[in-house]
Amino acid sequence: MPNILIAEKDFSEKAKKVLTKLGHVIDFQSSETFLRNLPKADVIVTALEVKLDKTILDLAKCLRLVGTRTTQLRYIDLEECRRRGIKVVNIKANSTTLQKTFSTAEETMALILSLLRRISWAFDSIKRGEWERKKYGGKELQGKTIGLIGFGRLGKMVAHYSFAFGMKVVAYDPFIGGTEMNYCGVKKETLENLLKKSDIVSLHAIYNDTTYKLLGDKHFRMMKSGSIFINTARGEITDENALLKALRNKWIAGAAVDTLSDESPDGGHLLKNPLVTHAKNYENLLIVPHLGGATQEATERTQIYIASLVAREIKNLFK
Question: Which of 234, 236, 240, 313 is catalytic?
Fold first, then answer.
C-alpha cells in the first residue's frame, strides 16, 4: 500500500477515511515531521500550507502523485513534477464541488461591508476607549454600482448577493457575452467604462500570464475618487505599487485584499510588502490572510473531493 503524506495541519477525518482504504495515511503533525516523512511518501495531499518546490520534491524520492485542493498550482514546481513523471491532480474551476462553494463570494461581501462601514477601525477605536459614531458611520450599499472584473463562478455569485443589497451590477469579462450577462441582470462593460462608473470594483479574474498586473496606475486613476477596490482573486493580478499609490494619493477611497503577491505559506511575504506597512498606519486598507476558501465547510468539502480524486489515481498508479 502506498504511503500517503498529508501536507495540511487540519485534515478532515471524512477525507482521511477515503484515503485509508487505499494506503497508509501519514498526518502532517508539524513541518519537521512532514520533512522527516518525505523520503517514504508515494503520494502527497496538499493545499497552501506547504510549497512543493524543487528542494522539497528532491527529498520525496518515491513520490508518484500529488493531489491539491487548489485551482491554482503556483505552489508546486510543475516542471520538476513533469521531469520526474509525478502526476498532479487538482480541483478544476468548473467542478461541481466549487459550484457549491460560496465562501469566497461571501467573503467579498464581508470585505465590502467592512470597508464601507469602517468596521475594523471603529472596533479599534472602541478598544482605545473612544466613541466615534460620526467618524466611522460609513456608507450604504443601496443604489451603488458594483463592477465585477471577471464574471465566472464567483462573479456570478457576488452579482447575486449584490442585487440583494439593492446595487446595480456591471461586469467586464472578455470571455462572457453580453447576452449571458443580461440574462443575469448584469450589464456588460468595457474595463475602462466599468472603472469609471463603479462605486465598488471587485476582482474575480483567474490569475495567468494574461492577467498578471492587469490593473495598474492608469486603471486606478480611472476609478472614482470615492470608490473602493476589492481583491479576493490573486495579488499578482494588480500592480501592488499602483494600488499603494492610489491609496496614498486618494485616487480611490479604500481597498480590501484577501491575497498579496508572492505569498509564502508561512507569511514571510508580509515583511517585505509595502501594502502591509501602509495598512498599519492608515485607515483605508484592509488585508486578510487569504481567507476566501478557508471556511470550515469549504475546507472539508474540498478535502473530501481531492481525497476522492487522489483515491481514483492511486487505483490506477499502484495496481
Answer: 234
Q: What is the pLDDT of residues 33-61, one digit of tens each?
A: 999 999 999 999 999 889 999 999 999 99
Query: Is the pTM above the cut of 0.70?
Result: yes
Catalytic residue among 107, 189, 263, 313: 263
180 in catalytic set: no
Q: Mark whether 219 is an active-site residue.
A: no
Looking up cell 466599468 gives 194
Structural element, H or E, at residue 294: none
The yes-or-no verdict on residue 18 having pLDDT over 80 is yes
DSSP character for 52? B
> Distance (Å, rounded) from C-alpha 314 to C-alpha 57?
19
| 234 noted as active-site residue | yes
Average pLDDT score, the chain: 95
SS3 state of residue 223: coil
Joined together, the cell numbers standing for residue 44 give: 502527497
DSSP state of 177: -
